[in-house]
Design brief:
The chain is of the alpha+beta class and about 110 residues long. The protein contains four helices and three strands, in the order ααβββαα. A three-stranded antiparallel β-sheet has the order 1-2-3.
């Protein structure tokens, strides 16, 4: 939740007209957000072509889901508070918690 506050301050205090400034912040905070998710749900980083784009970008593979934390940070910094990172994390947590529960139930049934 604190990351959203940090990004609000950064977004309000910097001019992102220079591509390098945005890129640096996206790598820093997108990597942080991605690592939090990766470690919490045992994900893996990969380079994946985002739908509608020609180039590959870093993404997380977690329980069959593709998550693009760097893209989310980019959108938060360039679009604004409507791209709230805390709400995004809450959606991820909700979805992956449900998936984890289903996987645990399957594993338990397989062992019996």
């Amino acid at each position: 939740e604190f990351l959203e506050t940090i990004l609000a301050v950064i977004g309000a205090g910097q001019d992102f007209s220079e591509k390098d400034e945005v890129e640096e912040q996206v790598k820093l905070w997108g990597g942080y957000l991605g690592e939090v998710v990766r470690r919490r749900w045992n994900g893996a980083w990969d380079l994946i072509q985002y739908p509608g784009r020609a180039e590959a970008m870093p993404a997380l593979m977690v329980s069959g889901s593709q998550i693009y934390p760097l893209l989310k940070i980019y959108r938060r910094l360039t679009v604004g508070e409507s791209e709230n990172v805390w709400k995004f994390y809450e959606q991820i947590r909700s979805r992956l918690s449900r998936v984890s529960s289903v996987e645990e139930s399957r594993n338990k049934a397989d062992r019996q």
